[in-house]
Amino acid sequence: MEQFAEYGHAIVSVAAFALIGLILSPISAARKANEQMEPGAMPKEDYSNLTYRMCRAHQNAVEMAGLFTAVTIAAILAGASPFWVNLLAALFLVSRIIMAFVHIRGIGKPQQGPRTLLYVLGWACCVILAILAIFAVF
Question: Is 84 helix (H, G, I), strand (E, B) or coil?
Answer without folding.
Answer: helix
